[in-house]
Each structure stands twice: as C-alpha cells, then as structure tokens.
Amino acid sequence: MPDLLLELRSEEIPARMQRKAAGDLKKMLTDGLVEAGLTYEAAREYWTPRRLTLDIRGLTARSKDIREEIKGPSTTAPEQAVQGFLRKAGLSSVADAHVHSDPKKGDFYVAHISKPGRAAEEIIAQLVPGIIRNFPWPKSMRWGPASAKPGSLRWVRPLQSILCTFGPETEEPVVVDFEIDGIRSGNITYGHRFLAPGEITVRRFDDYVSKLEAAKVVLDADRRKEIILADARNLAFANGLDLVEDEGLLEEVSGLVEWPVVLMGEFEEAFLAIPAEVIRLTIRANQKCFVTRPQGEGEALSNRFILTSNIEARDGGKEIAHGNGKVVRARLSDALYFWTTDQGDLPDLGQLEASAEKFGLDLKKPLDQRMARLDHLGVTFHAKLGTQGERVERIRRLAEELAPTVGADPALAARAAVLAKADLTTEVVGEFPELQGAMGRKYALLQGEHPSVAAAIEEHYKPQGPSDYVPSDPVSVAVALADKLDTLVGFWAIDEKPTGSKDPYALRRAALGVVRILVEDRIQLRLSSIFASAGACYAGSGADQTRDLLAFFHDRLKVYLRDQGARHDLIDAVITPQSDDLLQIVRRVEALGSFLDTEDGKNLLAGTKRAANILAAEEKKKTAVAKTVEPALFKENAEKSLFAAVNQAEKQAGEAIQNEDFSAAMLALSALREPVDSFFEGVLVNDEDLAVRANRLALLTRIRAATGQVADFSKIAG
C-alpha cells in the first residue's frame, strides 16, 4: 500500500510550539483522510526548527464507492417536508427519488445515493491547503507583497516550501500537486541553513531522512535530545564535572538546532558567590545553556556551562563559546548586583516606620525592610480583597490560630507569615519571579531567622501540584494552610469561584494543596471553624459560602482519593454535606475498604442493603413503621438475637467513632453479620399482624442506623 510524505518547511518555528504543531498536523490530516474514506496503517510526526514532517504508512490508494439509501417522507406528506428531504439528499426534484411501499406505512420516498470513490492524491491535494490555511498556531504572521491582500496566507513564520510525495515502495512515488499562495508542492527540500543549504530531491520517507542527515539535519527531535544529553554528559565528565540536567531546557534546546554541536563555556569564579538557583536561571533563561557542578561536591556549581550550537565551526567552536561566555558574564553581573542590592538598606527606609511598627519588623534587617515596603507601597493583591499588606495580616492571624493544631510554635508561625511575601519586592525575584519563596528563605537565613521560619517562607507555596512535595515542618504547614485557606475563603466571599475549566486564581490547586497537607501530614482540622474564623474579615462570608466551600473541598478530596486508588462508592458512602474533617473522611474510607474486603464485611453489606431496600419499598407504600422496637412483640429467637446484637454493636461502634478508632467501629459492626443473616433466613418481615410488621420494620431501621454511624451502606456497590 502507498505511503505519504509531507513536509512543511518555513523559517524558524519557536521551540515551544513545535511539538504541539507537529501533533496538530498529524491529527488534522489523518482525521481528514479517514473522514474522506481512506484508511492508513501508521502515522508519525517529526519536527525541527524549520520543518514539520508527517510520515503516513499504508494509506489506501482510493476511497471506496459509496452507495446509500436515504429514507424520506410519505408520498402524501406536505410539500415542505418533501422539499426538506430533497435538500438533505441533494436531489433536484422529486422525480429523482424512488418510491418504496410498506404494508403498514404505505408509500414513501427514498433517495438512492451513489458516490464514486476518489483517488488518494485528489483527497490529499484538497485537504492539505485547507489545513495550512486553518492551522491553529498560537500566533501567526503574514509576509511579502501578498500580505497586503485580504485573505492572504498566515503561518507562524514565512512558509518557504512544501514537499508532498505519495506511492508504494515498489514504484516511483508521485508528487501530490497543489498550490497555496504561490507555493507549489514538489519533491524538493533543503538541508541545514548554513552547513548544507542546497536542494535535495526526495522520493519517500526513508531516503528523505538519510539525505537530510547527510545535509546536517537530524529530523527526529527525540534523537536530537539524546545527542545533546549524551554529548553534554561526556563533555562535562571529561572536564571533571557533572551536568546539571534539565528536561525542560533539553526539550527547548532540541527545538533550536537541526544539527546539535555541544560546547563548553566559562565565566569568572567570583560569580559563584551568587546563589546556585540564580546562576542557573540566569544562564538558562538568557542563553539556553546548562550549568555544571564539580563531581561529588553536592549542590555547588562550577564556573563552566554547556551550550548547544547549530553549526560545526572551523575553530572547533572556540569563538562561539567565547561569545556565549561574554553574554553570560554580563547577565551574571546583573544578577550579582541584584543579589548584593537585596542585602543592603532600601533608599526609602525612613518612610517605612509605620509599616514596621504594624508588623513588628526590625528595619535593621533587609528582609524586614522589604516586607515594610510591600505594605507601605499598598501593592494590590486583588481589587476586592485589599492589599498584600492586608493579606499578610490575615495570614498571620490564621497561622497563629492554626499553629497549636499542627504542632507549631505560634510565635514562629506568625513571624514566618509576616516575612512570607517579603521577597516579592526584592530585585532577584523581580527578575526571576519563579524564585519567590526560595530567595526569601536564603535572605531569612542570612539575617539569622529561625530555620523553621526560613523554611516556611519557601514552603508555604507548597504543594503546587499533584507531584510536588508536601511541607512537613509544623511552621511551614501552619503558614501554607493559612495562605491557601485565606485565598479560598476570600474568593468565595466575593463570589469569584472556578467555573467549568476556568480557574484564573488557581483555587482548585489551592484546595488540593490543603487536602494533601491535611491527609499526608495526618492533621485533623475542622474546616468549618477555620472558614468562620478566616471569613470574619470579609463582609460577604457566611453560612452559604461555608457550605459551598466545604462541598468544593469534598470534590477535591474525591479527586485526590480516586487518584490514590480509592473506590468512588466508598467515598460517597462516607462523605456527608457536614463532613469537615478531611483526615477523618480518609480514615473512614480506609477502614470501610478493609472491612468490606472481609467475608463478614461482604455479608453484612448484603444484609444491610437488603434491609434498606425493604425499608425503602415499605416507606414508599407508606407502611407503618414503629418509632421504637418493642421486645414484647418478638415472636422468633432470631428477632431477639438481632435486637441484642444491634444494641451492642451500636453502642460499641458509637464509642469507637467517638475515639476515632474506625477499625474498631467496623469490628463492632462485624458482630451483626450472623444475626442479620439469621433474621432474614428465619423471619418474615411482612407478618400478617400489623403491629409485628411495624416492629420488625423498626428493627431494620435500627440496622440502618447502626451501620449509618460509619457509612451510608446503600451507596456502596455490591
């Protein structure tokens, strides 16, 4: 079967867009081919900075002939219905339709549609120009004289050539001929812009790859990544260094070169006084280079970096490395200035005394000065939620309140909360916002803060996603919870909640962060009381917001537990609208899951569900159910045994739940298994005596109530 090769060659595509663009091209073309009636065996996309390529194997040479019948209205139907049928079937008049008869429905119109198949080349030539014109680039441009005309071609960068060949391995492939804005498809591509810019005539994918390789173009992005990583590791090792690996940077760099050449540059050792994170980000952000560290010397960096060139220079890359070194030195000079400036006094120190007094700050310390400035400048957090200074004050109060619950020193929690946002006004964080928190920790340690305070300044942002770590230091936990809970309560108070897929303030992430901290650090916290305490600062906060916010946390907890492998029905069985201790919910789910894995658990579930079903049916029929169980009405020993067992299990399970020993509560309920089984085997609930029936239904109600202390068994599958 024939294969299709398509290449769209342009000027340099931004690295961040390449992988998705290649995937979009594959999806758009393969979807179009299938919709047109073609099938294929395999498809794979490739990309370099200057080309998007698609290799489709085993594509059918022609779409199938289509014959179908479209059933229409009755021959006696109104004219409007008949005309609608003709439009749908593509017929010009009712004379072109056939009349079929049905013994029951009578005569009705039928259109016999016949569409001959089309050659794959014709379908491809029709599809590709439309895909190019409607390609979903995040940003695109027009170029050249044609750009002045309405409807001119747009592409991420000027499109230069289109290669499109089609044919089986055993024959000479043909060029699929089409044109878009003066660019005609062909069988010509070009090699590396500088090293081999000449024309290359291509037949099919295999010789396309080999000829590009000979022309200094590595087509496969993953192979370019492997080359860069292996060469970088080897070059670092040869110089007594280890490469500091960075997957994101590796992905980006592989999208900047078609022929990767790895080189080493260096800068003065004096710059190593700058924190390693700042050096790494400076070199990464500005020069797209990797940093290195001496072998076996921990986190300390070396003064050498690894760069990836797109050309093989005659001098072995000395000038390229030297030029990159000059730029790196200039950038590090800026970083060194930021680092030293942040440790000095602010020029407006005299204006910060009021803010310093408000927060108990020591203006002899640089980080305290930065917090005072944050408050003094009145930097807005949100138009409806006040300034950053006001927010810090709320977080401080909440962190102090939470501290005893999480085992933290309230004074340290308050100090950490006050300094948590101070680094937002530092020069380094202004240049590298992704270092907020990390720089605050460094500056805090430099001015002699308690290690837990310093750690909390960095860790109060954690966890920032499902794979991020959860803080464990009690002070960090107190401030992290206070920060996230203040944010959530505040946005709920002003009715700025996530809607659908929109969550501009990352409130789902904040709630998931609270869930993970409470569950993974095994912290018991009554969220309702914390919502009330945090909401006291907001006019719009109240009972309705508390209920809604609690439901939002329940949804996040369900997502978290399902990701951990918990059964959704067990979660639903345990959670009630009032459940505000997330750790207790988790413990209940764990204990319930373990219990239901036992034979007693499975049998009790079956018995309890049977009792619930009987009750539901009788309640629907408005059958009388006694308010209390009357032992004098018992006729069978099984009733007496069940009544005694329910009393005992209810009491023991209740005491165990009070002690939050949910495994013991399950053990108490397991004693019901045999009496419940015996009851349903030997007792007819719907006795002829209405008083006996009502009494037995009341006994079933007691079973439901006893098990309901732990979970709603009716929601459990099985």
Question: Can you offer a commentary on this structure?
Answer:
The protein has 718 residues and is of the alpha+beta class. It folds into five domains: 1-59 and 117-213, Alpha-Beta Plaits, CATH 3.30.70; 65-113, no CATH class; 219-341, no CATH class; 347-554, Hypothetical protein af1432, CATH 1.10.3210; 590-713, Isoleucyl-tRNA Synthetase, Domain 1, CATH 1.10.730.10. Helices cover 50% and strands 13% of the residues. It has 26 helices and 18 strands. The two termini are 51 Å apart.
How are the elements arranged and paired?
Layout lengths: L2 E8 L4 H21 L6 E7 L2 E7 L8 E9 L4 H11 L8 E5 L3 E10 L4 H14 L25 E9 L6 E2 L3 E2 L2 E2 L3 E3 L8 E3 L3 H10 L6 H18 L2 E3 L3 H8 L6 E6 L9 H12 L2 E5 L9 E6 L8 H24 L11 H7 L6 H11 L3 E3 L3 E2 H19 L3 H10 L7 H5 L6 H9 L4 H9 L14 H20 L13 H14 L6 H9 L7 H21 L4 H7 L7 H15 L2 H22 L16 H22 L3 H9 L2 H10 L7 H19 L10
Antiparallel strand pairs: 1-3, 1-7, 2-3, 4-6, 5-6, 7-8, 9-10, 11-12, 13-15, 14-16, 15-16, 17-18
Summarize the structure.
The protein has 718 residues and is an alpha+beta fold.
Report how far the terminal alpha carbons are from each other. Answer: 51 Å
Q: Which residues form runs of ≥5 with pLDDT under 50?
A: none
> With helices defined by DSSP (H or I, 4 residues minimum), what is the helix count?
26
Total count of domains? 5
Q: Just give the CATH class of the largest domain.
A: Mainly Alpha
Structural class: alpha+beta
Shape descriptor reads flat
Any idea of the CATH topology of the largest domain? Hypothetical protein af1432
Q: How would a textbook summarize the main sheet?
A: 5 strands, antiparallel
Instruction: State the total count of DSSP E strands.
Output: 18
- Overall radius of gyration: 36 Å
Average of the residue pLDDT scores: 92
**Hey, roughly how much beta strand do the residues contain?**
5-15%
Helix content: 40-55%
